[in-house]
Structure formats: C-alpha cells, structure tokens
Write a structure and sequence with these properties.
6% of the residues are buried. Strands 1, 2, 3 and 4 form a 4-stranded antiparallel β-sheet that branches. The protein has 1 helix and 4 strands, in the order E-E-E-E-H. By secondary structure, it is of the alpha+beta class. The chain is elongated and about 60 Å long.
Length: 86
C-alpha cells in the first residue's frame, strides 16, 4: 500500500513582499501485513510569489516534478533489490 500524506501551509516573512507556500510530503510504501515501511520517501519544499494562490500552485508543480524525478529512481532501486540474484 502507498500511504501518502501532504501538508500545505503558508508563511509570511518580515520585510519580504512575497507570500510562501510550504509543502511537506511523504509517500511511504507499506507492507499491508506487518505495516512496516518498505520504502520511505519524503521531502519538504517552499515556493514564493506576491499572491498565496500562485505560490501554492508553484509548490504543487514543484512537488510533482520532484516526485516524477526522484521517486522513479528510488522505486527502481527498490524493485531491483527484490529480484533474485543470478
């Protein structure tokens, strides 16, 4: 089972005109019998813009890009370790 948790929040910084969207994402591959985490994957990121709605859109686009690039490689390594040795 793939258990995904996504938390998005916003932040303002003093003397910075931009609004920031922060994302915390975890996508853990879980063994359904033992509930052990077989493959952990998590990251956090932030994106800024003068409007919070655009900052949120950017942080989701950024997260999508990271998942596409990073999770693919992590999952490939995981699967290759499951193959029997010859």
């Amino acid at each position: 089972m793939l258990r995904v948790n996504v938390k998005v929040s916003s932040a303002d910084f003093t003397n910075d005109p931009n609004k920031y969207a922060l994302i915390e994402l975890s996508a853990n591959l879980i063994d359904t019998t033992t509930r052990d985490i077989l493959l952990p994957f998590s990251f956090n990121d932030r994106e800024g813009h003068p409007t919070i709605s655009v900052a949120e859109n950017r942080v989701f686009i950024s997260a999508e890009n990271r998942i596409e690039k990073e999770f693919k490689d992590v999952f490939s390594v995981f699967l290759s370790q499951l193959q029997p040795m010859r």
